[in-house]
Amino acid sequence: MPDPGTVPIRASIAADEPAIVTLLSATLRGDPVLAWLYPDASAQQLADAATAAARQTITEARSRGTIDIASLGPGRVDGVAVWADHTEAAATTPAMLRPADGITPALARAAGLGLLLDVEHPVGRHHDLLHLVLAPTLAGRAGVVPRLLGAHHDRLDAADLAAYAVVHRAAGRNMLLAQGWQEPRLLSPADEVGAACPPAWALRRVPGRRDRAGHEPGA
After folding, report:
1. Which helix (H) or strand (E) holds 101?
2. What is the dihedral of CA 25, 27, 30, 36, to 10 degrees?
3. Any idea what DSSP says for residue 88?
4. d(CA 40, CA 37)
5. Spatial contact of 199 and 171, defined as CB atoms under 8 Å apart
6. Is residue 53 within 8 Å of residue 28, measured between CB atoms?
7. What is the pLDDT of residues 127-163, one digit of tens each?
8. d(C-alpha 188, C-alpha 200), whole Å
């Protein structure tokens, strides 16, 4: 199996932004929530909405957060972890729920899901993991996720800060569980905003939480 240590992990810089947007928007285009929010949109409109949401997320993370990347070469972004700092500023509406580039999500669906997420969101000082994305180029490289999250986990532990994330796919839920995040709470948005809404899991990480192998996060 390829050595995960051969995949460099670093904080992103401004020059990485186009590649980050490309990776993140490609992931959002396949997100079941996006299709649910825009039930009548064309494929191009969904792509435009995904790109707009990716750009908004990256802009906000640059102003009050952290973006770490995995890169297999110059100019490449093969993995990204996007964090928002909520130690001083309040949480904002997720970018996917906002109108973007001339296309508006179904207002009742966006409002209902937004309210559900607001009610569940922690009020104390913490960081949000907004996105954790790996490109297919990292498939089979065990150990990349612990390293991509590890530096930020270490910073959270040093500051005695918790972390929070909402995911809509079982694969994302399982990746975080493997890194010591606490058992997920199923938000059951279908009960609140309609049976067609994809599931959502809220996960939390307490400072110093160990992964399933008993290692400190990032170790």
Report:
1. none
2. -70
3. S
4. 9
5. no
6. yes
7. 999 999 999 999 878 789 999 999 999 999 999 999 9
8. 6
Instruction: Locate 162 and state its tokens.
Output: 């918790």
pLDDT tens-digit series, residues 26-68: 999 888 888 888 888 889 988 988 998 899 899 888 988 999 9
**Which of 122, 105, 85, 92 has its CA nearest to residue 28?**
105
3-state class (DSSP) for residue 169: coil
Pairing of strands 126-134, 201-205: unpaired
Q: Which two three-digit tokens encode residue 197?
A: 């809404």
Q: How many Cα neighbours within 13 Å face the side chain of 69?
A: 23
Rounded distance, CA 180 to CA 104, Å?
37
Query: What whole-number distance in Å separates Cα of residue 17 and Cα of residue 20?
Result: 5
User: Span 88-102, mean pLDDT?
Assistant: 60
Alpha-carbon distance 49 to 47, whole Å? 5
Asked whether the beta carbons of 199 and 190 are under 8 A apart, the reply is yes
**Distance in angstroms (rounded) separating the CA atoms of residues 85 and 7:** 26
Separate counts of helices (H) and strands (E) for the chain:
7, 7
Please, where are the H alpha helices in 14-85? 17-29, 32-37, 43-64
